[in-house]
Design the sequence.
């Protein structure tokens, strides 16, 4: 498997009023060709900022982002512009990304024009083919974003993301604003396009139902850090980190002892995160050491599944014998 994006110890801190918000605080992961990798967590945990830094829409404070082995954080302007053809983003609300004053034909032609691809005739061909790729046809060319349904708008946003034949797409809450039935259609479309064009997706979402269905692997983020990373089915069936356990307990599972873990307290202020383990202020299992020492990621299972927690016996195993530790 080919590594498409490698993120190493990424930090993004920014000033807000008089404090320093640590939006992304030491995140590392690798995205492999053709996979869908989910970033999950409550709003404000740093998922979107991570996606933006990956695409260099905002600069990291420190750390490295590699694309096919090359460090994009040191790209020149020209290299960045060239690279932009390969990487795209789809947002929750296509209203913010689609120019309301332009029709669909213009919107889809624009990236081709900017990157000086083909001539008028070949560009028009490409626009038509891409419209078909997303389940629309030539009758949409003259329509404006406000004349489309939410699902159709998202199809146009996806068309404009794939029209330059990208390799990697960040989908930031890409279906969160849609009705459940339309969500399913858009997710199926994304899957189809992924197979057809070998796309690699970073799927940012707070909706675990969607993530479980759509992602091959996931990383659970809390206060700018990844607390658990691994295969979706492994984590959703048996989360090992107390925060992941709480998150996944909130969605209905099929077994009898459906117990929902309600987290005590609010998400701490990201400009003043707790010492030690960032989750210790809300963790039902917290130990003395959790307040002072930050846990480091360690492998559980086959080595690709990693957890950042001091517990020597992970939570899902603890349910079997509550008296341990
Ligand atoms: Fe809870 Fe401690 Fe594990 Fe953090 S390190 S999740 S506080 S048990
Ligand atoms: Mg977000």
Sequence:
């Amino acid at each position: 498997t080919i590594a498409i994006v490698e993120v190493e110890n990424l930090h993004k801190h920014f000033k807000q009023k008089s404090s320093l918000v640590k939006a992304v605080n030491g995140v590392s992961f690798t995205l492999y060709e053709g996979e869908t990798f989910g970033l999950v967590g409550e709003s404000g945990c740093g998922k979107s900022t991570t996606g933006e830094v990956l695409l260099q829409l905002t600069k990291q404070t420190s750390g490295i982002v590699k694309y096919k082995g090359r460090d994009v954080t040191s790209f020149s302007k020209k290299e960045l512009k060239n690279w932009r053809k390969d990487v795209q983003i789809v947002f929750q609300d296509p209203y913010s990304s689609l120019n309301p004053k332009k029709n669909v034909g213009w919107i889809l032609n624009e990236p081709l024009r900017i990157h000086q691809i083909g001539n008028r005739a070949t560009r028009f061909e490409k626009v038509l083919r891409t419209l078909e790729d997303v389940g629309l046809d030539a009758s949409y060319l003259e329509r404006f974003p406000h004349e489309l349904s939410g699902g159709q708008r998202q199809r146009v946003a996806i068309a404009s993301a794939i029209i330059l034949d990208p390799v990697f797409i960040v989908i930031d809450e890409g279906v969160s604003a849609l009705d459940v039935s339309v969500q399913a259609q858009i997710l199926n479309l994304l899957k189809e396009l992924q197979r057809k064009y070998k796309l690699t997706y970073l799927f940012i979402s707070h909706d675990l139902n969607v993530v479980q269905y759509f992602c091959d692997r996931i990383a659970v983020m809390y206060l700018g850090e990844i607390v658990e990373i691994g295969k979706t089915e492994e984590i959703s069936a048996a989360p090992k980190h107390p925060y992941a356990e709480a998150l996944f307990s909130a969605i209905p599972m099929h077994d009898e002892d459906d117990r929902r873990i309600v987290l005590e307290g609010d998400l701490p202020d990201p400009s003043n995160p707790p010492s030690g383990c960032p989750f210790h202020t809300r963790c039902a299992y917290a130990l003395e050491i959790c307040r002072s020492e930050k846990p480091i990621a360690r492998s559980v299972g086959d080595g690709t599944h990693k957890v950042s927690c001091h517990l020597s016996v992970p939570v899902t195993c603890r349910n079997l014998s509550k008296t341990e530790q």
